Amino acid sequence: MSDRKRNRIIALILAVICVTALVGCGGSDSKIDKTIRVGVVTYTQDDPFINAMTDKLKSQLKTMENSNMKVIVSVRNGDNDQREQDEIVAEMIDAGCDVLCVNLVDRTAPANIIKVARQNDIPIIFFNREPVHEDLEQWDKLYYVGCDAKESGDMQGEIAAEYIKNHPEVDRNEDGKIQYVLLEGEAGHQDAISRTDCSVKTLIENGVQLEKLSYQFADWNRGQAENRMTQLISQYGDEVELVISNNDEMALGAAEAYRNSGISEDKWPAIFGIDGLDDALQAIKEGTMQGTVYNDKEDQAGEMARLAVDLFKGNSLSSHRLQDEKYYVSPYQKVDVDSVDDFLHR
Ligand code: BGC
Ligand code: CA
């Protein structure tokens, strides 16, 4: 072999080694600010509020894409089974996800998820279903994005009290008391517990005399609430004057039960929900619901998207104004017929 030929072969081998090395470290280097993979896992696929928030999260994350950074979002759900959700999280981590957004099935059981994320150094932003404080303290890369449930209960009590003051006809049998039914979300959910307590307490503090007819769990679900309410209508006829619901879906289920009951609309109770879902805003416009409390999914999704990107890039989190360096608390807003247009089509 001639010297020239040997030199060319050596140069070629060196070039191949260099390119391989560049691609190799380029692969992990470019991961730093080129492609962020966000894994989003919800507790079920059947929750309209969670689905609406997840859609916002996907679009918010996509708006953060630019020429230096590609965003890949993958969304899955735990099918209401904590063990299944644990497995999905492990699979997402295996598949190379950089940041996790987790809406726990069982908010008291995040241990497996935290363990595997920590082993792989993948930060977790929990949302909507709040782990207990001790669990969030287990590692410094655990965050929570959600709301102060007490605030939503207080606001719901305030708008209901205000409505009753301005509409004395709510007390249809004129006995000075408001006969009411309360529809509760999932047992053990931080929002269900506080909303129930706080809305009733606030109504009473605002001078409304209440008479409790029934409390019913309906699991956040429209169909279940419709069934419960149909049952209550067969028991109480048109005696119910007020329905307080832990969320809009159940409030809409109650309205549906009245629609199917044959009771004339002037004898329907005043109905209040929480969330500000489009169907509920529409119902407020049409007068089949009287109010709700806006659970700001745009704000929560926006915060999660910004936090995910900052965590990925290793940026300072000071602009996020996190409480205890972990919690983002999104404010609620009251919605009634006068303000409903400000919230429609956000
Ligand atoms: C919402 C409910 C939803 C639940 C799911 C609550 O904050 O108000 O509509 O079903 O979260 O965890
Ligand atoms: Ca009454």
Describe the structure.
By secondary structure, this protein is of the alpha/beta class. It contains twelve helices and twelve strands. It has helices spanning 3-33, 48-63, 82-94, 111-119, 133-136, 149-166, 190-205, 222-236, 248-259, 278-286, 297-313, 340-343; strands at 35-42, 70-77, 99-102, 124-127, 142-147, 178-184, 210-217, 242-245, 270-272, 291-294, 327-330, 333-336. The strands form three sheets. A six-stranded parallel β-sheet has the order 2-1-3-4-5-11, with helices on both faces. A four-stranded parallel β-sheet has the order 7-6-8-9, sandwiched between helices. A two-stranded antiparallel sheet has the order 10-12. Helix 5 (133-136) links the parallel strand 4 and strand 5. Helix 2 crosses helix 11 (297-313), helix 6 (149-166) runs parallel beside helix 7 and helix 8 packs across helix 9. The longest helix is centred in the first third of the chain and has 31 residues, at 3-33. It is elongated, with a radius of gyration of 26 Å. The termini are far apart. Residues 18-32 have low confidence and may be disordered. Bound molecules: beta-D-glucopyranose and calcium ion. Calcium ion (CA) is lined by residues 171, 173, 175, 177-179, 241. Beta-D-glucopyranose binds next to helix 2.
